[in-house]
Amino acid sequence: MIRHLLKLVWNRKRANALILVEIFFTFLVVFAVGTLGLFLWDNARRPLGFDWQDVWAVRVNMQAGSDDTFTAEQVETAARLVREVETLAPVEAVTGAMMEPFAFGQYTSGRTVNGRRVSMSVNEVTASFAEVMRFDVVRGRWFQPADAALAWRPVVIDEDLAREAWGEEDPIGRRLGDPDPKSPEPERRVIGVVRDFRHHGELSGPDNFVFYHKRLGHPQDRPPRVLLVRVRPGTPVAFEEELTRRLQAVAHEWSFEIAPLAQTRESAFRLRLTPLLVGGIVAFFLLLMVALGLLGVLWQNLLQRTREIGLRRAIGASRAEVHRQIILEQLLLTTLGVLLGTIVVIQLPVLDVFGSVLRPQVFGSGLLSASVAMYLLATVCALYPSTLAGRVQPAEALRYE
Amino acid sequence: MIQLERVTKKYRTERVETTALDNVNLTIDQGEFVSIMGPSGCGKSTLLHLIGLLDAPSGGSIALDGKPVERYGDRALARVRNERLGFVFQQFHLVADLSVVDNVEIPLLYRKTTGKERRRAALAALDRVGLASRTHHFPGQLSGGQQQRVAIARAIVGKPAVLLADEPTGNLDSQMGDEIMGILQELNQEGTTIVMVTHDPRLAERTHRVVRLFDGRQVQ
Fold first, then answer.
1. Per the CB 3.0–4.6 Å rule, which of A65, A115, A124, B29 could disulfide with A214?
2. Is there a single domain that holds both residue A336 and residue A208?
3. Structural domain boundaries, residue A40
4. Does A158 lie in the same domain as A278?
5. Nearest residue of B to residue A311 by CA position?
6. Prediction pTM value
């Protein structure tokens, strides 16, 4: 029967073209939205790499004309700010950084390692960053104040970067980036490896990450743009007022914006979920329209085939067999549409569009779920017309004009 | 083989009730070639549809091989139509998007037969009606007479005991009509019971018995 129906579907390819095109495009949209959803879900169940709770971010605005230049006085003021905050009773630890976790925007860098270009996200942090953000070093060590005296610049990388740059080899002591006589960049060596650090939050994909050592109070290092303050659990919101007052006392001309990391995290969630929500709504309405379209086109096709259905009933098809045949035809058409869609979609990993961001399992699951969704849609749309087709009285259908 | 007792058929709409057949009694024995004649609208096709189990009577009873069919469910009726009966229609009712051989195979799709068996039986049936060279043509590429021969091949592919033909030559010229009638007579001589609706007295003369209807009543 399948072969018979395949012939029928193929020989009616012009009549079926509209349904096929609808299924093809819907498959692409459902795949895109489904894969995005699965990608975010897969990311969300992986470890974040740090602890954001009870951490407050203090964004420091030095009110300077240029963001790239700074004075020795500003460097010293920033160091005094950190020392001042450390003295406050609710504070457990303080660190300085170029940007706080979950923040919108990023600093990325590309370096050539063993002749291969490796891209990575960067944050410059002071030595107490690991203590504030509570993560462990799995290999080597974290920054120490004594590192300021080194002739080269130490870096700590995450496991993603270690894997991509050196595979299974030990990265400790290796130079991050091949020597480049044209670049004024200082030599940077790996001193430690931390677990995958998901700077952009739970919903972000895998990312190579490197920490540069920011030397607090060092005249060559820009003062931190943000202070991260770990407070004792249960610290009231009112502490924000006292914290601002103490900071303002040290730096009268500067301004400060204080927000718990939990708040920044919420914003990051919203930012990442918005495309999914918008895509989901678009996909839902598209599915609804396609479902109605399929129902209409299928109904129309069946009306045109009333005499054929009557004939099949006359020569031996039961109601159930007619019902089954219509659904099978629809599923075969869906298979053609899904196959076409799969051929298009499969080009994405072949052309390395996703790089290492999208895991193959997520891609496969996206493909599978989109296919299942299309088969479900096709079956649901075919149910009613096929039931009506099954109820056709052969004697009436044979007379149908 | 086929017995109709006091069979009536009424069509009802919201306001009108029309009697298409009234108190028809008919017995058709195995191997007979019976023609049904009468003016347009007298109920000939309705009677053929009832005999072919394509429709249910409003009253009376129909028995096939001695078994009343009233209590048959949809599946059982479909099975009887598929295994015991063959149909030939005035309009041929071929599926335009399927080749000749695929059209002939359709009744066997509803039986448990393999693809090879289906193909062998379909080719044999086409050979039987003289269309062995047109198996991969499509219905639109054939003349009316050839299309009707395909329809006959489809009707006999499952080796039915009874062949029901509803004005099989109605859309054909007299020469092609004669050819089709010749095939039906040969099938009858080979043992197939045939019931044929026709307007043409010349064709009816070539059958064993003529049943005449007028205004839904059997007049002879």
1. A124
2. no
3. 2-45+273-400
4. no
5. B93
6. 0.74
